[in-house]
Amino acid sequence: MSDATPTELLPDPSVAGPYGSLDPATLRHPDSLKWTFFEEGVIPLWVADMDYPVAPPILGALRERLTRGLGYHQLLGDRTLNGQLRAHLATGGLTDVPEEGVLFLPGVVPGIYATVSALTAPGEPVLTMTPVYHPFHLAITEQGRRVAAAPLAEGGARWEIDWDALEAAAEGCRLLLLCHPHNPTGRVWDAGELARLRDFVLARDLWVMSDELHADLRLTDAPFESFAADPRVRERTVTLTGPCKAYNTAGLGIGAMVGHDPDLVKRVRAAAGGLMGHPSALSVTMWQAALQGGGPWLRETVAYLRGNRDVLQAFVETRLPWARSFPVEATYLAWLDLRAHPRAGEMQKLLLEEAKVAINDGPLFAPEGHKERYQGFVRVNFATSRPLLVEALERMAEALGREAVLT
Ligand SMILES: Cc1ncc(COP(=O)(O)O)c(C=O)c1O
Which ligand 1 atom is the nearest neighbour of the CA of 182? Predict the structure, then answer.
């Protein structure tokens, strides 16, 4: 074990990046759910918002947009954004998407619900890998379907698909809900895994919904490949995406459902009917501005997140050697295994009450019947300033260290 102190883990402040001096007093404004949900003094590392301000090109475009009308202009979609998005998706291998294959939605989650509703019937099992972003399993159970859960396997250095578990769970399923990159483990499924997964869905004749919302938040240099990059699976896949994770704009609500088969997109959209609503004019402007001029901001932000990821990983390895976490490949969410702690069954409570740090509790990321397996795991949102992150980790280590951990 290294003797490095957390201060030594902190890079030189001169290279601490753009967000080093974020002030909790400013972050705790009344519009911030993340910062006001818990009492003052708690460092909130839970809901997936970043603590970083809006990218200047987006802010500028929104201000300018407000000088014009805010009517139904984009009710039928927006051709500029449609073209920008298709060009962007082509970089991940989603080439040749027809213009009618892009449908804008008020968010990604409505797209998950609509897909489950359109492509499965009540009572049916729907396949997904656990742990997983909770609206995946909620979209299944809240609509009267059953979760066919295939738990991920802990590999030597990363979370991996358990192919046997996937095979076993797939019995009777017609739809796979895939999270790529994966929330909460931070995996970006690699070319080999994607190829095998495509063989699997072809052999099983499955529809696929691939939620690729975190694709632009990659912390490694590996290229990103969309699930539907391979023509063999294009006609059976809907891909969901949006700007809200990469650009921290969840409050403006917009997403897109993208498919090479426009009839499939229409069928999924139709399942939601009039309940779906439409994205707002400001959200369209925001996404246009992000795709047009947000690149430099995103690169700087991703570089900062990479630094935070490294600090967190080093901290866990040196200060909590009994705990486990694999280096996050994408997202700003770390999945920590604290099961060795004697109070693993009440981790969220312990960390909130004794460390004054708010995290998401592991069981949230699994449906009923599977929650027990994730007791002792926590999801940590590290998209804050590096000093605040280190302070939170210090407090966690202190609170966790009050009891001896048997390993
Ligand atoms: C994988 C994934 N999909 C969807 C969402 C939410 O998307 P939206 O706010 O556009 O509904 C999140 C939010 O964290 C997410 O992690």
Answer: 1
